[in-house]
């Protein structure tokens, strides 16, 4: 073992001092991307920024009515969300985030840390401004809030049979929100609310129901005033779900 380590180190040193360095220093366990690399296995009891990054990716895999707190503490709720994520993608479901789980996440994410089926450009229309400016929070915060929603939506679309979800409204500045008749307390102004439009599938009520186990506290659908042509999903601290026609 030690011999192998020594010869590996010499090879690396040779590579550094020589001209060919590319490749040799790449991690043997592959597949991190330009976004974030987990360097250790995470399980209950762990804490840190890498736990928060994991929590963002599995926040859409909660039980109905639950919302995962992104607090960097790997407790039972995080373990259960990881377990559901693993089962959802056909991995061994042990609630421990190791190489298989991380490799699946790397597979699911783009270099800008968004999930592969969603992009910032779908959420930043902002009445034609194409940015995250002018809301109730800084543009950087709004963008990060939107990224978190994207991961919840990535889980939701997978659970709905890998059907595309159509974003009809994402972030809105305060003035954009009032010009489209949004509520004065609308979560769209902080990047914490998103509207999903209708398509051939999934149905409006299927989307509304799926939102319950994707961590959304605000869920408004058919029968709720102004929501007969979309489903509104949002993150906040208290639960308000309404879709009288579902
Ligand atoms: Zn909305």
Automatic annotation (TrEMBL):
Secretion signal span: 1-22
UniProt KW keywords: Signal
Superkingdom assignment: Bacteria
Pfam families: Peptidase_M15_3, PG_binding_1
Domain Peptidase M15A C-terminal: 129-233
Stretches assigned to the Peptidoglycan binding-like domain: 47-104
The protein's name: Peptidase M15
Organism: Actinophytocola xanthii
Upper classification of the organism: Bacteria, Bacillati, Actinomycetota, Actinomycetes, Pseudonocardiales
């Amino acid at each position: 073992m030690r011999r192998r380590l020594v010869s590996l180190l010499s090879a690396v040193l040779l590579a550094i001092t020589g001209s060919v360095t590319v490749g040799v220093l790449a991690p043997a366990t592959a597949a991190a991307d330009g976004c974030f690399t987990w360097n250790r296995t995470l399980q209950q009891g762990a804490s840190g920024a890498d736990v928060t990054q994991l929590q963002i990716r599995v926040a859409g895999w909660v039980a109905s009515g639950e919302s995962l707190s992104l607090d960097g503490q790997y407790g039972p709720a995080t373990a259960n969300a990881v377990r559901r994520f693993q089962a959802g993608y056909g991995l061994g479901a042990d609630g421990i985030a190791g190489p298989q789980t991380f490799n699946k996440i790397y597979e699911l994410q783009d270099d800008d840390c968004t999930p592969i089926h969603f992009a910032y450009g779908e959420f930043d229309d902002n009445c034609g401004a194409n940015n995250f400016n002018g809301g109730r929070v800084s543009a950087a915060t709004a963008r990060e809030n939107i990224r978190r929603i994207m991961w919840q939506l990535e889980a939701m679309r997978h659970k709905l049979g890998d059907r595309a979800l159509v974003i009809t409204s994402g972030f809105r500045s305060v003035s954009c929100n009032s010009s489209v008749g949004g509520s004065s307390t609308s979560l769209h102004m902080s990047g914490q609310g998103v509207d999903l439009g209708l398509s051939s599938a999934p149905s409006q009520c299927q989307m509304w129901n799926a939102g319950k186990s994707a961590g959304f506290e605000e869920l408004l659908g058919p029968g709720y005033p102004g929501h007969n042509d979309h489903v509104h999903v949002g993150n906040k601290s208290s639960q308000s779900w309404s879709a009288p026609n579902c």
